[in-house]
Write a structure and sequence with these properties.
The protein is an alpha/beta fold. The chain has a single domain, classed as Aldolase class I (TIM Barrel, Alpha-Beta Barrel). It is 34% helix and 22% strand. It has an eight-stranded parallel beta barrel with strand order 1-2-3-4-5-6-7-8, surrounded by six helices. α1 links the parallel β1 and β2. The protein starts with a strand and ends with a helix.
Length: 207
């Protein structure tokens, strides 16, 4: 599966890309960054997202300092999947329980600063994981090659889990991530930075 990613500081830009994604995707991934967990700040307003009345399934990536305080507002606008970072959550059980209450999937993310082994206590609790192959921040960063080893390691430790890879995804890095064990590729710059977003999406999907 390939999911287009929205990483924008302005609602109108985000809305425009969401409308483009409606033409070729069933999902959309929204990066929410608060300027505290990351230096970067992005648009991330659940009420404005709901106003778009899109039929796309929503995956929300909470790159924020206190995800527990924001998660329900996104679940209330029918987010299907919530991604949280291991080092930012205080109560993994709360994340799992509230996502379960709304019928959504909880995803545990490992960014480049967090080794996969740090998540071993949660391997049996979560069914979905993300390897963030760039540091949390703006779109367009270069894929970090050590992420391939992390995908392989996580796949060995969680053979039935769904593993998503996000950051610096193109045809080459996407193929390497899939071969290492990834199920889902998330791409923002490669798709929306292309003069033909649908074509870029289809090229990734062909992998």
């Amino acid at each position: 599966m390939v999911i287009p990613s929205i990483n924008s500081s302005e609602f109108n830009v985000a809305a425009n890309n969401i409308r483009k994604a409606e033409e070729f995707s069933e999902w959309i991934h929204v990066d929410v960054e608060d300027g505290k967990f990351t230096k970067h700040i992005t648009w991330g307003n659940p009420e404005e997202f709901e106003s778009l009345n899109t039929k796309l399934n929503l995956e929300v990536h909470l790159m924020i300092q206190e995800p527990e305080s924001e998660i329900e507002s996104w679940l209330e606008v029918r987010a299907k999947r919530i991604i949280v970072h291991l080092q930012s959550i205080k109560d993994p059980s709360f994340i799992l329980n509230i996502c379960g209450k709304y019928g959504a999937e909880a995803v545990l993310s490992f960014d480049p600063s967090v080794p996969v082994d740090a998540g071993l206590p949660y391997i049996r609790s979560f069914d979905y994981f993300q390897i963030l192959s760039v540091f949390p921040g703006p779109s367009g960063q270069r894929f970090r090659e050590e992420s391939i080893e992390k995908i392989t390691s996580l796949r060995q430790k969680a053979p039935t889990a769904t593993i998503e890879v996000d950051g610096g995804i193109n045809e080459d890095t996407g193929r390497s991530a899939k071969e290492a064990g990834a199920n889902i590729l998330v791409a923002g710059h490669y798709i929306f930075g292309s003069p033909d977003p649908k074509g870029a999406y289809e090229r990734l999907s062909a992998i």
